[in-house]
């Protein structure tokens, strides 16, 4: 695994690359990718950082794991490649945007268009074995991505953090609420959404309102 990360992040994250846990993580990931099928493709592991540069971060969405079926994961949480069937959580995200903003349901589930506008689509774990959800958890990725969240909290202002579901909500302790905005709701997965914990959260219009208040460009969701 090459730590192929955009130069804008390096002043903040390079100290992590030298820590023993990260070196162990790199060795683990390299071995996994050599010996078994893993996602996303090796050159897209750090895609979230390469498509959304540090200076541009306005919104952070936190996922847990990459998608683990063929051709889905592209290094951006909740996102799938063009032409790939939308997973259930992504369907519910797009449905909420439809309800909230009146935007037609999109054909592509590729959220690259969000990343390029300053939305960091961050999975807590950046890799996974094919067809084995959670298989790369607790190997060091969470230490790294927690540091990413703290770095954004400490070095930026007025970022909107969208915490969906119990796992993401635990990350609120890493964020300074005096400097940033935290919007929490249930997860967009069918289990949570069908119980009434997702639909109607209006996180997309609320995010744009907060960005407008901070004199920042709104996101074209």
TrEMBL record:
EC primary class: hydrolase
Domain of life where this protein originates: Bacteria
Matching CDD domains: UDG-F1-like (cd10027)
E.C. number: 3.2.2.27
Catalytic activity, as annotated: Hydrolyzes single-stranded DNA or mismatched double-stranded DNA and polynucleotides, releasing free uracil
Subcellular location: Cytoplasm
Gene3D superfamilies, sorted: Uracil-DNA glycosylase-like domain
List of catalytic residues: 65
GO molecular function, one term: uracil DNA N-glycosylase activity
Pfam families for this protein: UDG
SUPFAM superfamilies: Uracil-DNA glycosylase-like
InterPro entries for this protein: UDG_fam1, Ura-DNA_Glyclase_AS, Uracil-DNA_glycosylase-like, Uracil-DNA_glycosylase-like_sf
Family matches, as PROSITE patterns: U_DNA_GLYCOSYLASE
Keyword Amino-acid biosynthesis: no
Main location (coarse class): cytoplasm
Keyword Transit peptide: no
Keywords of the record: Cytoplasm, DNA damage, DNA repair, Glycosidase, Hydrolase
Similarity annotation: Belongs to the uracil-DNA glycosylase (UDG) superfamily. UNG family.
PANTHER family named in the record: URACIL-DNA GLYCOSYLASE (PTHR11264)
Function: Excises uracil residues from the DNA which can arise as a result of misincorporation of dUMP residues by DNA polymerase or due to deamination of cytosine.
Protein name as it appears in the record: Uracil-DNA glycosylase
Species for this entry: Mariniflexile jejuense
